[in-house]
Amino acid sequence: MITNIISLCAFAYLIGSIPFGLVFAKTFKSVDLRKIGSGNIGATNARRAGGWGLGLATLACDFLKGALPVLIALAISQENSNELKGIGVALTASSTFCGHLFPVYLKFQASGKGVATAAGCFAVISPITLAISLIAFVITAGISKRVSVGSLTAATTIPISIIWLNQPAAIIGCTLFISIAIIVRHKDNIKRLLAGTEPTIRKK
User: Fold this and answer.
1) Beta-carbon count within 10 A of 119 CB
2) Per-residue pLDDT for 202 more than 70?
3) Ranges of H-type helices in 51-146
4) Structural domains counted in the chain
5) How far is CA 157 from CA 137, 150, 162, 177, 198, in A?
6) Which residue has the higher pLDDT, 41 or 81?
7) Is residue 169 part of a domain?
8) Has residue 13 been placed in a domain?
9) Is residue 43 part of a domain?
10) Is the per-residue pLDDT at 44 higher than 90?
11) Better-predicted residue by pLDDT, 5 or 11
12) Model confidence at 204: pLDDT above 70
């Protein structure tokens, strides 16, 4: 069990480290996302740099790299107790999320904020939690016209939902870690929101 978890965490980290936004932008638009807009390699900056097609492709792949390792972890731990299953899934989700934030292929720099990858993880861990967070995202992003506001609201909602649904302690711990990390990654957005200079969804 321990060997399987270690191997799966390593696999999850390497998958999470793949910078899809950067690869897509360079391949299809001949631009480096690290030198455009916010410098972020996630879906939002990819959309601003290359349009909705590029943004949605990045979003989908970042989502899948969160979902796939967690799905594998859940599948191979079906025979374990709920506690051991929770530990394996939590560690795998944390690993793929850390891969996105600190990608080895980019020397642990120039990563995204982890929202799409986290969404992929929770699509497998707790679809109800993801649904609640997505509703919160859509409402707040729609009202504010800013993706960052929706992302921050969703990140705040996730741990509340997980605790409310009485998930295992390991899953709760993983959720708190991911939620706090997403909020910290949005520190520049928070500063711009407070200053009134955060770009809207339609502004490139």
Assistant:
1) 21
2) no
3) 52-76, 82-101, 115-125, 127-144
4) 1
5) 9, 10, 9, 13, 22
6) 41
7) yes
8) yes
9) yes
10) no
11) 11
12) no
The DSSP string of 132-196 is: HHHHHHHHHHHHHT-HHHHHHHHHHHHHHHHHHTT--HHHHHHHHHHHHHHHHHTHHHHHHHHHT
Exposed, middle or buried: residue 194 (CB in 10 Å: 0-12, 13-18, 19+)? exposed
| Residue 203 domain flag | no
Q: Which two tokens stand for residue 80?
A: 């374990």
Q: Model-level pTM?
A: 0.90
Q: How far apart are CA 114 and CA 21, in angstroms?
A: 12
Q: For the CA atoms of the chain, what is the radius of gyration?
A: 17
Look up residue 70 and give its two tokens. Answer: 């967690």
Tens of pLDDT, residue by residue over 57-82, are 999 999 999 999 999 999 887 777 66
**Domain extent at residue 71:** 2-195
Between CA 74 and CA 141 the distance in angstroms is: 32
